[in-house]
Amino acid sequence: xxxxxxxxxxxxxxxxxxxxxxxxxxxxxxxxxxxxxxxxxxxxxxxxxxxxxxxxxxxxxxxxxxxxxxxxxxxxxxxxxxxxxxxxxxxxxxxxxxxxxxxxxxxxxxxxxxxxxxxxxxxxxxxxxxxxxxxxxxxxxxxxxxxxxxxxxxxxxxxxxxxxxxxxxxxxxxxxxxxxxxxxxxxxxxxxxxxxxxxxxxxxxxxxxxxxxxxxxxxxxxxxxxxxxxxxxxxxxxxxxxxxxxxxxxxxxxxxxxxxxxxxxxxxxxxxxxxxxxxxxxxxxxxxxxxxxxxxxxxxxxxxxxxxxxxxxxxxxxxxxxxxxxxxxxxxxxxxx
Amino acid sequence: xxxxxxxxxxxxxxxxxxxxxxxxxxxxxxxxxxxxxxxxxxxxxxxxxxxxxxxxxxxxxxxxxxxxxxxxxxxxxxxxxxxxxxxxxxxxxxxxxxxxxxxxxxxxxxxxxxxxxxxxxxxxxxxxxxxxxxxxxxxxxxxxxxxxxxxxxxxxxxxxxxxxxxxxxxxxxxxxxxxxxxxxxxxxxxxxxxxxxxxxxxxxxxxxxxxxxxxxxxxxxxxxxxxxxxxxxxxxxxxxxxxxxxxxxxxxxxxxxxxxxxxxxxxxxxxxxxxxxxxxxxxxxxxxxxxxxxxxxxxxxxxxxxxxxxxxxxxxxxxxxxxxxxxxxxxxxxxxx
DNA sequence: TATATTTGGTTAAACGTTTAACCAGCTTAA
DNA sequence: TTAAGCTGGTTAAACGTTTAACCAAATATA
Lengths: 337, 337
Hints:
The structure is a homodimer. By secondary structure, chain A is α/β, with parallel strands linked by helices. Chain A is built from twelve helices and twelve strands. Chain A has helices at about 5-15, 20-25, 35-45, 55-60, 75-90, 105-120, 135-140, 165-180, 195-210, 225-240, 255-265, 300-315, and strands at about 65-70, 95-100, 125, 145-150, 160-165, 185-190, 220, 245-250, 275-280, 290-295, 320-325, 330. In chain A, α1 (about 5-15) crosses α3. The model of chain A has no long low-confidence stretch (mean pLDDT about 95). At the A-B interface, α4, α5, β2, α6 and α11 of A face α4, α5, β2, α6 and α11 of B. The structure holds a DNA duplex.
């Protein structure tokens, strides 16, 4: 790359100090500089194609106007949808965003956070993986502005914006009950993350409320990594045996897609013999042939709120805000054909 | 945020110059510094929790180890899939990536590029929108390292990695012909972008090769923004009239999804009366009830190659590399049920 | 007339690194 | 004995900004 034009170059050309150029170009001390000279400086900057060096400015001002985003996987539609919202909201405030994917791996997320901090990001938006609590605590100690999104740790007093997972699961299960289901199973990840625990809690509470069986055996957990075979086995177990389920709640979109794929190979009729509710909206089920319902997360609101909260925090508002948004139950009927 | 530990702080604590600390921490001049002192410095750095300030380093070295990525929309699975590959490849070389979405808007992409350059990114990976050729030319003049991805401008000698769009479309159409289609239509965007033109060219060539009608009226173009109604109208026109089509090529995944949605409302039978080939793999068609085919882009290779080419270019290899990857024709049969 | 104040700028330090150039004290070779 | 070379460091400038502090000349105030 060719050498770039600096303030000094402009100053030289116009015959003033670099300080003055800086003042003019940043519209500071406007009353203290003569309009004609200011114009000459601006003109010079324009026809020399001056562009500020943000790195230098950042070093001096200790601000990068950059926010770091750590999601589990940017290729996942949930993450990338969120990223897009955050990007737009950030852009409106002259912020850019560096993203990275933690793959639900605490070690990796720790490394990513460090890298982002080394780059002096002004703040972080994080979807923390399981067992990353200590990282969050460290951020608190270091007084780094951040907000958690989608997930959070219940006994940490941090900013976050997430779903009301208990309520959403509860609502999903009640939908099944209303539709006539009496033995309702749940498929979730074997994971410590609070938001998943809350979904289980909501599921259980809804069953109890309606005096339906809430046995442990109705809840199947699968490893977050080795999906397919496990999922099939779990669903198979729920569907066979003396008292097969007639309703099923998926705790995450990936589970739902894999689950639907398997269920499709079975003779079981959806929704007559098995009615399904899933978490998260997912494109993949766009053309599913049978009706089902899902909990739609307010992605837009989540992203916007998270970004605004972060910008607030960067701007020194030391308050902590915790928001649980309501999920919407959407009943999807197949695209007609 | 609390004040951070700097090289100077370490130097003071150990009682040496900051230069020496820098040398040690960067493993430079290893033979010129005594092992014990080096260890003391490292220890001090460790228990003071020293973390380098990349901004300061970047200012001095004129390198940010950051690459800028401009896609059309990070929320689009194609873009986010690509972004993920690029992220991983970049990370392996200690690069991070700043992303932004141009929304197929040349003005916006210009602004984004400027912002990225202000931040002194070491290079750019771009999926340029239509009418952004001049921006690319400027980058060339400024000798900014960059590589185009997915799209490119045929009369610009730039690095790029994209699909062999002509070949892919050709292959898709031949698939239809082999399956017995005789009147094959195409739905594409009204857009100058070369890669779309190439798809049309491939479509036309395949028809001509097999002596099938290649009339203008078989190609429908819709605006890239106001999709739904336009798409329905276009498909309706192709399907009705004196000689309705029996085969259809979609030039992009969004078109395919909207198209399938509409076709589903029609009495026409897929694939018996209408056989379909689409560009791009898309989750949304996962559970489509009828067989169809699509051109699968080698996303992984595309992202990896683009990143490597960019890193090469950043490392001063002035050669320009142009790669057209082959698309794979995938025939998808419905998930059984 | 003497003193304050305003006007329109300049000077210089600082942000936290990197790195070329330097240097004092030894060791070695001739 | 002396010059050259090595060892293990230090000094200082520089990267491109920002911004507090300063200053001379012109103008206003008493």
